[in-house]
Amino acid sequence: CPSGLSAAAQIAPEVASCMQKGVVPKTLFPGCAKGCAHPPPAALTIVGTAEGCDVIHNGSARAAAQSTIGHADAAAEIARLARALIGDHDV
After folding, report:
1. Residues 16-74: pLDDT tens digits?
2. Rounded distance, CA 35 to CA 17, Å?
3. Given CA atoms 21, 22, 26, 32 in this order, what sign does their dihedral have?
4. Which terminal residue of the chain, N or C, has fewer Cβ atoms less than 10 Å from its own Cβ?
């Protein structure tokens, strides 16, 4: 999608790998602020921005972010946040 930002595209392969290994719960949704691919709220929503990735807990891509994480450590931080927020029982 032309609305997607490079931050999401850059971390997507690493996040997908973490999902396959069971590190990141499958309820995680990376995307852009439009939220077209997943309109409903998710336990953890990640939105690619020019500055990095906005983190939204229990909300949709259009909700206000609780924090922003940088591009460099986005995949590792997403995995950490997902484990803390959702817990290992949902992985």
Report:
1. 777 777 766 665 666 678 888 778 888 888 888 878 888 888 888 889 999 888 877 77
2. 22
3. negative
4. N
Torsion of CA 69, 72, 76, 77, to 10 degrees: -10
DSSP 41-65: -EEEEEEE-SSSEEEEEEE-TTSPP
Separation CA 4–CA 20 (nearest Å)? 23
Provide the token pair at 44.
């953890």
* Contact between residue 75 and residue 30 where contact means Cβ atoms under 8 Å apart: no
Asked if 7 contacts 48 with a C-beta cutoff of 8 angstroms, the reply is yes
Is the full-model pTM beyond 0.85?
no
Residues 6+ apart with CB under 8 A from 77: 69
